[in-house]
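Quick question about two entries, pasted in order.
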Amino acid sequence: MYKKIFVLSILAIVMIGCAYAADSTDSLNNNTVTISGINFTIPEGFTEDVDGAIVNESESYEGYNYVTNGKSFENENHFLLMSVSEYEQNITEDILEDVGDETTINNVTGRFDDMGFLALFSYIQDDKVVVITADDRSIIEEVLS
């Protein structure tokens, strides 16, 4: 329960967004964006919503300190939000155990939760928690292609 609230709080940060300039560790090149060292494919037709960027947001949850960076994209019909959280402490997969069901999307194993109005896929890569949120699972599949 608490872990689901944790991931939903990250989602809330992403959805609210912050009007910051792009972080120097982030880049967009040929429909690929890198956030905190993690690469994502941006589907054709999506443009960045720079007002939805999250840059070096420091948070703490149940003794875990972390910094989140994220970007949001949209087209005329859909939205896409991606965040990467880097923790001061070592983290394991069990931090996500209460979020959705274990699922593999395009060779990436994580936790998927379909909440009706949005789809959420969370996983750990390079000791970072990655959260991809969109209004349709197929968009998440494109991001991970």
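Here is the second entry:
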Amino acid sequence: MKILLIFILLLLMGWQLWQLLRRGAWRELLVYALLMSLALFYSWGYVAGRDFPNPYDYLDLIFRPVTFFIEKSLMAL
């Protein structure tokens, strides 16, 4: 089942890449290829049984101080 999901991901990736190449949307092509290759890397790691860090942890590390600052500012009003 996991390999079928990866195969479907590769099919979708190929179809979308073909559409972007045909339109000549080079910036979108670059961003799409980067994000999809990251997703493919994570899915291959999942199939191989490897543990990868959760991206949410890094986002939380970055945005938690900003969130607390905004909360304190709003509570002070």
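Reply: The first helix runs from residue 2 to 23. The chain has three helices and no strands. Hope that helps.
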